[in-house]
Amino acid sequence: MNKRIVMIPAFVIMLAVLPVSPAMAETVTLQQCLSTAVTHNKQLKVSEFEVDIRENKRKSIRGHYLPVIQVDGKVIKFNDRVDLKVDLSFLGTLLADFEMFLSDEAKASLGVITQEGIKLNVREDLVYEGGVTVAQPLGQLFTVFSGERAAHSLTESARADTISARRKLELDVVRAYIGLVAATSIEDTVEAALRQLDAMETQVEGYLKAELVERNALLKVQVAKAEYQRNLFAAQKGADIARAALNMYMGRSLDAPLEPDAEDLGIDVVVNGEVDLMRQQSEALKLRPELLSARHSRKAAKFGTWASIGKMLPDLNLIFRYHNTQGTGSMQPENEYFGGLVLSWNIWEWGASYYDMRSSQALEAKTEAAIAAGEDMIRLEVRSKWLELQASEKSLVVTGMQVEQAQENLRIVQLRYDAAEATTTELLDAQTMLLKAQNEQIVAEVNQRAATYALMIARGKDLVKNK
């Protein structure tokens, strides 16, 4: 027998992991997995840190609106103090005609001055200096404003990117969870089929003794059991892989035990596949975080162009300076201050600012094109998911009919086999047909669920309640 019986969804095959004992596993619902994943997923935290980085950069730029206050000071030790000696010997000759009018004390003082001169302290050996400078930018406020608004738009873009990453994570969790449900359900159907084959093996052994069946009938049953067992191993492998993926998405150890709650696969937000397609597409264009991120990036590029223009304008600053000096004697005042306007303008820099502006304009045009392309892709994605949902719902109806037909076919063949009117091969084929139909029904149910939630994500919906 060379037939493919078990159909495992492709998205179940993700990671290898050790087998988990169901008796020790924690039963979790889909909503619990989603809530845990958006809280503890490691990759999602990377996106959240990017928001913090951009927000702090925005605050850094915003600080340039206010004056810059700079405090400076220094202490200098020289090898010796410096004095200025002034020779006043000429005063004796100059004041000789007036000497008769001077008192004795004045004459004595004048004699000392003319002989020794005077010393003026220019600098002590230890000098202290300190000052405060306040500079308020004026000419560059436009550039600061443009840069701050660009940074704000980039922050909002990062927030939208985080939402986009979270929605992708939610869809991955849903696929892994539903895949785990499918794999465990397929395990149940294969195990049930194996039990039927065990019973059939016993029956065939009795028929062989009575020579009511062909001689190789028992061998055919044993071959079928081996094929079913192989498919059971494949289903168990798929379940283990999906379980490991769920643990990874939730930030847990890959081999942490858990089991899905197959009875609780619902999510509060419900998508109606019959809603007008154009309305769904219009809704997606408003809500999809990828487009929101692109629109914020377009704003950032626009403000970036403004900032580039601002760099070409004159730089005007209002300056106030207070300075205190100790240890320079009477040659320099201890306290001094001044204020004024300082203007500077790079009138020629070989086109550096100009081409920077052209680069910003090109970036703005690029974001416009990216938005237009993104809108087309989202319209296509919504259409695709909408069609997938419709196809999965039709497939679910068909597989349900196939199971009923396969069950009836097996019932009839079993009656014929018991009456020795059908061969063992026919009975095995009927059982295989039923097992295949049951597995296809499980896959169809999984695909219908996955298509429903994929359409929700495509329309910009959130799968996590009470987030």
What does this structure look like?
This protein has 467 residues and is α+β, with helices and mostly antiparallel strands. The chain has helices at 30-40, 42-62, 90-94, 104-116, 141-209, 217-249, 277-287, 289-311, 352-418, 424-458; strands at 26-28, 68-77, 82-86, 118-123, 126-137, 258-260, 315-326, 335-344. The strands form three sheets. The protein has a four-stranded antiparallel sheet, with no helix packed on it. Strands 1-6 form a two-stranded parallel ribbon. α1 packs antiparallel against α5 (141-209) and α5 (141-209) packs antiparallel against α10. The longest helix has 69 residues, at 141-209. The relative contact order is 0.16. The model is unreliable at 1-23 (pLDDT under 50).
- Percent in strands: 5-15%
CATH-assigned homologous superfamily of the largest domain: Outer membrane efflux proteins (OEP)
CATH names the topology of the largest domain as Outer membrane efflux proteins (OEP)
Structure summary, number of beta strands? 8
Helix content bin: 55-70%
Instruction: Give start-end ranges of low-pLDDT stretches.
Output: 1-23
Mean pLDDT reading: 84
Q: What pattern of helices and strands is seen along the backbone? A: EHHEEHHEEHHEHHEEHH
CATH architecture of the largest domain: Up-down Bundle
